Amino acid sequence: MDKNTLEKLSAFERIDYAIAMFIREKIHSPLLNKTLSRINRGEIMLVLILPYLAYAAWQGSLPYPWWIVIPYAGLVAYANDRFVLVLKKLIARKRPLVTVAGKVDQNPDMKHSFPSAHASNSMTAALILVFLFGFPEWFLVLSLLAGIGRLLSLHHFPSDVLGGWLIGTCFGTLGLFLGRWLLPLLFGTT
């Protein structure tokens, strides 16, 4: 990025670019990018959720029937995801892979950086799993890892990830309140 363009950015945007440049110069590598792209997926979170769900169902430690956990958390995360995708299209901020690393890619997704859907969706799901269904608190770390992975792979700026976590927290909280009202009505449990 040239000096003239950099001067036009707000202090917040300059911090975003400085962190992204540091990651590009000191941390980012093709192997790291490939590795993070493979493990930083929703399917991986599901692979971690299912064994705990089976264990908790077997132990009888879930507050609601085991079969409602994935559909409910998934439905709230899906609503969150649709909202985030609308924001991405409206804001149309280019990803650091394009603006910082100079990657040339005709994929339209390369100009949809803010907010991070990975950070947002993982936060939504983690909050519901932990605070509504009684999963261990370490499931919240999965959202942290999702956001950090998106930073290190240069798919997002720090503000994209922070924005994603904030939106995910809002949707997760709404899902939590809705679930605490709706699920006892449906299942008569608390």
Automatic annotation (TrEMBL):
It is a multi-pass membrane protein. One of its GO terms (cellular component) is plasma membrane. It comes from the Bacteria. The chain crosses the membrane at residues 42-58, 64-85, 126-149, 161-183. Its main location: membrane. Residues 70-176 form the Phosphatidic acid phosphatase type 2/haloperoxidase domain. InterPro entries: PAP2/HPO, PAP2/HPO_sf. The keyword Transmembrane applies. One of its GO terms (molecular function) is hydrolase activity. It is found in: Cell membrane. Keywords: Cell membrane, Hydrolase, Membrane, Transmembrane, Transmembrane helix. Gene3D superfamilies: Phosphatidic acid phosphatase type 2/haloperoxidase. This is Phosphatase PAP2 family protein. It comes from Leptospira koniambonensis.
